[in-house]
Design brief:
By secondary structure, the chain is mainly alpha-helical. 81% of the residues lie in helices and 0% in strands.
């Protein structure tokens, strides 16, 4: 609950209380009466804040170290993706890429509140995010060099739209009882970008190795 909402509630309660304290104000004097009202309002606001704090605490879930590491590494990869998008001139690719990042942010929040879903998201965190990062990184270099005839941009746009749609579905299904598996959809898209020449097996292997090395370094730093 926002501070503005709490203020409105407190004012409403004051308007309800004041007429009923009229007799008290006459008997005890204005200053004392208003002091009593102020104390009541303060107690009401404190109670509302306490309820808000307790409500937020109930949503907080402790993650196992490995789960926290997976989410943190995924967030790091999304930071990298956002950085690359900031260098890309194609507005449609930027828009689709930022949409993917926003969906990822919502996924991270949902996973933090539902740790049991992290297992099904492992491949998304450790494989598909690096793949998206690699494709955008490669496209940014080609765009900057001015050697793209437009075909690569068209393929990247199509790929990002498919990824965005798949991730939105993934996020929605996190709140359903059905078990979500991104493997089929994402593997099909990965095969498509390989077939279209956006990435090669060697490039993807190097990106995954680089990601794994970064994850290992993060673990060592945290020890």
């Amino acid at each position: 609950m926002s501070g503005c909402m709490m203020f409105i509630i407190a004012c409403g309660l004051c308007l309800w209380i004041l007429p009923r304290l009229g007799r008290l104000l006459l008997l005890t004097g204005g200053l004392i009466g208003f002091a009593i009202v102020a104390l009541i309002v303060a107690l009401i606001v404190y109670s509302l804040k306490g309820g808000e704090s307790r409500s937020s605490e109930t949503k907080r879930v402790d993650l196992a170290p490995e789960q926290a590491e997976l989410i943190n590494n995924g967030k790091s990869k999304v930071i990298s993706i956002r950085s690359i998008l900031g260098k890309i001139r194609d507005s449609e690719i930027r828009e689709d890429g930022y949409s993917i990042c926003r969906t990822c942010d919502r996924i991270f929040k949902a996973l933090a509140e539902q740790p049991k879903s992290i297992t099904s998201a492992r491949q998304f965190l450790t494989y598909y995010l690096p793949t998206i990062n690699l494709i955008l990184e490669k496209y940014e270099k080609v765009e900057r060099s001015g050697t793209d005839s437009g075909k690569m941009a068209e393929k990247v746009r199509s790929y990002l739209k498919d990824v965005d749609k798949a991730l939105k579905k993934f996020y929605t299904n996190l709140f359903d009882d059905e078990k979500l598996d991104l493997t089929v959809e994402m593997e099909a898209m990965t095969m498509a970008v390989k077939r279209d020449g956006l990435i090669t097996d060697d490039e993807l292997r190097q990106e995954l190795n680089r990601t794994a090395a970064g994850d290992l370094q993060n673990i060592e730093l945290s020890l």
